[in-house]
Specification:
three-stranded antiparallel sheet; two-stranded antiparallel sheet; 28% strand; alpha+beta; 3 helices; 5 strands; single chain; TolA/TonB C-terminal domain
């Protein structure tokens, strides 16, 4: 049986969790709204085509206030495909903003 103090802590914990989840959703939407100015498509490497390598490359990027990608963390993908994405991301450009944003990108490679 729960006393009043336990009920209050449970309610407070639930309220804090709901607040944290709503803030996380808001920041995710804000990140997704950052306008892309230049986003060339990665070239499917010829050797990957010959080896019939297909798949998805997932990468988390930190976009600087100037709109350039300043950090990349590859989450998954074949190394040949990751290299193609890494080279292409050097030419991506987002609209300038007041601060950094983080987002996850996915690139699908199929013949």
């Amino acid at each position: 049986m729960m006393n009043n103090k336990g009920k209050e802590l449970g309610i407070l914990g639930g309220t804090l969790l709901a607040l944290a989840l709503s803030l996380a959703g808001a920041s995710l939407r804000a990140q997704d709204s950052r306008k892309v100015l230049s986003n060339p498509v990665p070239v499917y490497p010829e050797i990957a085509k010959r080896m019939q390598i297909i798949g998805t490359v997932k990468v988390q990027v930190v976009i600087g206030a100037d709109g350039r990608i300043k950090e990349k963390k590859f989450i998954g993908g074949h190394p040949l495909l990751v290299n193609a994405v890494e080279e292409t991301l050097k030419n991506w450009k987002y609209a300038p903003a007041s601060g950094e944003t983080t987002t996850q990108l996915e690139f699908n490679f199929h013949p």
